[in-house]
Specification:
Elements (H helix, E strand, L loop, with lengths): L5 H26 L6 H18 L20 E8 L20 H17 L1 E7 L9 H12 L6 E5 H9 L21 H7 L15 H4 L2 E6 H6 L5 H6 L5 H9 L17 E5 L3 H7 L6 E3 L5 E3 L4 H14 L5 E3 L8 H8 L3 E7 L13 E4 L13 E2 L6 E4 L7 H17 L1 H14 L3 H11 L2 E2 L2 H4 L5 H10 L5 H7 L1 H19 L1
Parallel strand pairs: 1-2, 1-3, 5-8, 5-9, 11-13
Antiparallel strand pairs: 3-12, 4-9, 4-10, 6-7
Helix pairs in contact: 1-2, 1-15, 3-14, 3-15, 4-5, 10-12, 11-12
């Protein structure tokens, strides 16, 4: 996504949402069977044509895929493999919509699917499978087996980022730059991915408007408006706008609200905290500096970039502010069940909740108002905010190298992505996130900032040096020496990078 002015972005989403309903209705009215007498039918068709002509006047940036106008695939069943990591709720099926239900997001998917199915004479189907261990989970094993056997069961997949990474350097995924009719420079594909995940000139998995899984897996912070006001902590929205929303400010706010509510001299789920914190926030905080575990160099090779002054300073500031168990509640160190921390935040027992954007779906009925913020900058001089994609929860679009008809796959994916820009994304914003969960215009503005500042870190996806685990262990065990952790795994990290660069170089030959 490219960053748009908040007002323009909101207006575009609203307009497209209206157009989507208009176009869908026009299709149903013009395509349905009728028993009206011939004379009346002629009058009705003339009136309908006039109405449709007026209704479908499209804005200049309405997405239209550049695909063959006469494409017809003779009823082909286009099969997506859907799988994530081990958590069932992160099998993000962006194509499941068997009927209209009256729920806007579902109905937008349904309308998109039907429009593309009718246009290209196909049937969209999905095969949902439970996830597995990261890197060689269900997505990896299923696609690997199909490729080795020449099995074309799956045209494409939406699978875990870890599995996508392993499949990519194993030569099991189609280079999307070479996929016929897929134009990754178009606005319905995430341009940040082109910058962050292209290795040796190749890109094997991506996302964009075709999926909302990347948005759900984006790092973000919720804050309790009641506590923010009671402790006279100012306006965090304005801090974000002015570029002054920093790790120092976050720590300062969080340190002043903790309290032993039940007076037992022990801090537990009955007390109040400055922040409820998810383990993986450690990776998000590192990326919030604008730095990454690994970065693609100008020559197209992967290089380690985790250890530098900015990362060290951010870690130290985060450590000093949130290692204190009387300020932060590390809920996963108690239980991975999110029920208790959700109840705590709903009951005004924490100023902040640091997790993923998907977290907002738990608070639709929360009585106290809450707002949403991006992860903080390291300092005010930083160029912008950076919102990482949680690697454990990431899901990407990919296609196996074994294709019955690569041109057909490319046409269908491009058509789905463009139509998603027009229908699914507006419904996701206006009718789901904003309409159901986000409660004020300021948070909507924050949402635009968060989703236009994605960071995709190959170091996490490829598990380089196991740093994706090791930075979590710093948090788990309250370890303070980042340098020792880094140096302990440096040789392993360099071996990993050498292996990956060699694999991509071989693929290029």
């Amino acid at each position: 996504m490219t960053f748009l002015d908040h007002t323009t972005n909101t207006a575009r989403r609203t307009l497209f949402a209206v157009l989507a309903l208009t176009l869908t209705a026009s299709c149903f009215f013009s395509c349905g069977d009728s028993e009206t007498p011939a004379a009346d039918t002629a009058k009705d068709e003339t009136a309908a044509q006039d109405t449709v002509t007026e209704a479908v006047t499209l804005p200049a940036d309405y997405a239209v895929a550049d695909i063959p106008a006469d494409a017809d695939y003779d009823g082909h069943t286009f099969m997506f493999l859907i799988t994530g990591n081990t958590e069932n709720n992160w099998q993000k099926n962006d194509f499941a919509a068997d009927s209209e239900t009256g729920e806007a997001f579902n109905d937008a998917r349904y309308a998109r699917n039907r429009a593309i199915e009718e246009k290209l004479n196909i049937h969209i189907a999905t095969d949902e499978q439970y996830g597995g261990t990261k890197g060689k989970g269900t997505g990896y094993t299923t696609i690997n087996k199909c490729v080795m056997a020449g099995d074309t069961t799956y045209d494409a997949g939406m699978i875990a980022g870890y599995d996508c990474a392993t499949l990519a350097y194993s030569g099991m995924l189609y280079d999307l730059y070479d996929m016929p009719y897929v134009d990754l420079t178009q606005r319905w594909w995430d341009q940040r991915i082109n910058e962050d995940l292209t290795i040796a000139g190749r890109l094997y998995y991506t996302t964009g408007d075709i999926s909302t899984a990347d948005n759900d897996a984006t790092g973000a912070i919720l804050f309790n408006k009641k506590l923010m006001s009671e402790y006279d902590l100012g306006d965090p929205y304005e801090l974000v706008r002015s570029g002054k929303w920093t790790i120092d400010k976050l720590g300062e706010m969080a340190s002043g609200v903790a309290a032993d509510l039940n007076g037992d001299s022990q801090f537990d789920s009955e007390d109040r905290y400055g922040a409820i914190i998810w383990d993986d926030t450690m990776m998000g905080i590192i990326n919030a500096t604008g730095e990454k575990c690994c970065t693609v160099q100008k020559d197209g090779t992967l290089a380690l970039s985790l250890y530098n002054d900015r990362v060290l300073t951010m870690f130290e500031k985060y450590r000093d502010a949130f290692y204190d168990p009387q300020i932060s509640y590390a809920y996963q160190r108690v239980s991975y069940d999110i029920t208790t921390p959700v109840s705590m935040f709903s009951n005004d027992q924490s100023l902040f909740f640091m997790q993923l954007l998907d977290l907002v779906t738990y608070f639709r009925d929360m009585k106290t108002d809450f707002g949403i913020l991006p992860l903080p900058k390291l300092d005010e001089q930083q160029d912008r905010y950076y919102s990482t994609i949680g690697s454990w929860h990431s899901v990407f679009l990919c296609a196996p190298t074994v294709q019955e008809n690569a041109e057909r796959t490319g046409v269908i994916l491009e058509a789905l992505a463009a139509e998603s820009y027009n229908t699914v994304t507006p419904a996701y914003y206006e009718k789901t996130l904003v309409g159901k969960y986000i409660r004020d215009d300021d948070s909507e503005e924050m949402l635009d900032i968060i989703l236009s500042s994605h960071v995709y870190d190959l170091g996490w996806f490829y598990q380089i040096g196991k740093y994706c685990d090791e930075v979590l262990y710093l948090w788990w065990y309250k370890r303070t020496d980042f340098t020792s952790m880094y140096e302990k795994h440096l040789k392993e990290a360099n071996r990993d990078i050498e292996k990956i660069n060699a694999a991509f170089a071989e693929l290029n030959t």
